[in-house]
């Protein structure tokens, strides 16, 4: 029997017994699994009570599936219509190549879909995921379809439990805040950390519901990597675990080529190029497995080394005027450039390698152009380069790898007299403008400040403005409400603002060695009035203070990576409290 429960008494694992409406629109439907994050979401929406079933409306997983021939007619019709509708969202030739041109392959995957969705527990979880995050639901189905078709294509034996894991690999995102999942901009480091928790949350949920251990392990381990850089357990995935490695590759390919809340879908060949970079230079995936997947999709990115069905070998050329399915090939033996014919009389037989030099050179040229446009003050062209280079980065990575790195390079050029001071100031001003533009995008997506007020002081001249702006915005991104003071060294003024803002935090940008004595004098005065004030000191010469007798007052950083580590001390403390 359903019963009405106040939100403060609602428990993780309950099942909604009645639709929840907000402004006459259905927010969640009957049968939705109540997770701790759903409870938090309802609180933020102002919902005070909900109707739930007295006992769970689902049974723990039982390894029983109904063959499609024995499905009740109404269920067969319903699931078939659902399958056809969902396949139109994923099975685009620009992503799938020709793998579903065969009617037999289409009917085979349809049968597998009907079989898995005939299980009430599997369907229950997938329906919950569809309500919580429709994009994640379609991605999960896409990974399931692509991995299933791949294993069939290469004739690998694979367990039903593993394939269940492919379908349910992201089920832990039921415990990820929906605002993060549907965020349109880049993730902050804190938001990314919340996303990573879906692996363990999925593992625990599936274990709790009695799914096979292999199914649970796919949910837990699908973000591990060959070199141990993945999560949650930092495993060095062995090549012998080829099913999991292939599924990891498919997971990345699907995420890159499908429409996401934060970006448009990527071309298949561009996604393949990223997978090759991850395999050849970052050692995240095994090269041979990456080759197998590219052969399966049969779309080959530029610089791919291939053997053709006529026995000739060559390299795929970049040419936006031709189809990715029928690329141009430069033959090694003769140097002749051919385009693969539309009658498929000659096709690619297999990939045998990839030349990373073109990709590395392209990256170098984009970076050089970025620096040139900064110095030239060309904001729009610099922004184009920035957007190209920042694809796939988290917000803090953009600040560290692009903005800070650019300022380091420009400062180095100035020190070598390769730049006039006026050019340095133009470049610095351009960086400030780009940061401001990016922050306009980011702040629309930020939650309310949770860390309190921080006063940020630039002790440097106007030359330090770009780096002070970097520091200021990193604090904003990580939950502080900032008050930026540009070029000020008046201790009484700083004290007055700290008092006015009731700030618990103060940060100085200190780039000149000569400023350290002033800094010590200022902080000594401030410490007398504000003994609990937390002080950050950031800048290339801040390390000098490490040996000072007042060093225990400061959190010192010489670069943005160290600054973020110092922030984490307080972020973690807040989480614990």
TrEMBL record:
CDD domains given in the database record: HDc
Domain HD-GYP, chain residue ranges per copy: 114-309
Pfam families registered for this protein in UniProt: HD_5
Alphabetized InterPro entries for the sequence: HD/PDEase_dom, HD_GYP_dom, HDIG_dom
Name the UniProt record assigns to this protein: HD-GYP domain-containing protein
């Amino acid at each position: 029997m359903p019963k009405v429960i106040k939100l403060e008494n609602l428990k993780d694992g309950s099942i909604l017994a009645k639709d929840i409406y907000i402004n006459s629109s259905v927010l969640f439907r009957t049968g939705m699994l109540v997770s701790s994050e759903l409870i938090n979401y309802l609180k933020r929406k102002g919902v005070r009570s909900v109707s739930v079933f007295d006992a769970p409306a689902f049974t723990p997983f039982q390894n029983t599936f109904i063959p499609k021939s024995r499905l009740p007619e109404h269920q067969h019709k319903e699931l078939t219509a659902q399958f056809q509708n969902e396949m139109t969202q994923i099975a685009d030739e620009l992503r799938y190549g020709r793998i579903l041109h065969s009617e037999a392959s289409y009917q085979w995957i349809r049968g597998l879909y009907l079989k898995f969705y005939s299980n009430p527990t599997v369907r229950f979880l997938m329906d919950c995921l569809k309500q919580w995050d429709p994009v994640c639901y379609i991605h999960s189905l896409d990974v399931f379809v692509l991995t299933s078709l791949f294993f069939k294509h290469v004739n690998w034996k694979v367990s039903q439990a593993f394939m269940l894991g492919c379908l349910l690999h992201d089920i832990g995102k039921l415990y990820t805040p929906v605002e993060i999942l549907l965020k349109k901009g880049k993730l902050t480091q804190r938001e990314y950390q919340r996303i990573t928790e879906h692996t363990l949350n999925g593992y625990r949920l599936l274990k709790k519901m009695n799914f096979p251990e292999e199914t649970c392990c796919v949910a837990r381990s699908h973000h591990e990597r060959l070199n141990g850089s993945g999560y949650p357990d930092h495993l060095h995935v062995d090549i012998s675990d080829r099913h999991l490695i292939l599924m990891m590759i498919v997971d990345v390919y699907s995420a890159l080529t499908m429409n996401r809340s934060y970006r448009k879908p990527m071309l298949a060949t561009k996604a393949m190029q990223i997978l090759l970079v991850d395999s050849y230079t970052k050692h995240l995936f095994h090269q041979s497995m990456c080759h197998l997947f590219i052969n399966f999709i049969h779309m080959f990115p530029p610089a791919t080394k291939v053997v053709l069905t006529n026995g000739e070998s060559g390299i795929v050329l970049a040419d936006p005027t031709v189809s990715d399915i029928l690329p141009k090939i430069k033959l090694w033996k003769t140097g002749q450039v051919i385009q693969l014919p539309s009658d498929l009389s000659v096709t690619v037989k297999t990939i045998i390698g990839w030349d990373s030099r073109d990709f590395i050179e392209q990256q170098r040229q984009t970076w050089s152009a970025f620096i040139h446009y900064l110095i030239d003050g060309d904001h729009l062209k610099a922004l184009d380069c920035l957007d190209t280079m920042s694809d796939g980065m988290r917000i803090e990575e953009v600040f560290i790898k692009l903005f800070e790195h650019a300022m380091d390079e420009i400062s180095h050029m100035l020190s070598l007299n390769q730049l006039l001071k006026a050019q340095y100031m133009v470049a610095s001003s351009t960086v400030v403008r780009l940061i401001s533009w990016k922050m306009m995008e980011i702040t629309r997506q930020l939650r309310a400040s949770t860390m309190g007020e921080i006063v940020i002081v630039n002790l440097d001249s106007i030359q330090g403005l770009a780096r002070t702006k970097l520091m200021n915005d990193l604090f904003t991104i990580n939950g502080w409400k900032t008050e930026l003071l540009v070029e000020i060294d008046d201790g009484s003024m700083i004290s007055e603002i700290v008092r006015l803002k009731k700030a618990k935090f103060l940060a100085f940008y200190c780039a000149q060695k000569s400023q350290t004595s002033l800094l010590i004098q200022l902080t000594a005065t401030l410490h007398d009035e504000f003994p609990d004030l937390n002080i950050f000191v950031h800048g290339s010469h801040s390390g000098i203070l490490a040996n000072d007798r007042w060093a225990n007052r400061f959190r010192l950083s010489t670069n943005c990576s160290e600054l973020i580590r110092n922030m984490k001390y307080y972020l973690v403390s807040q989480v614990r409290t």
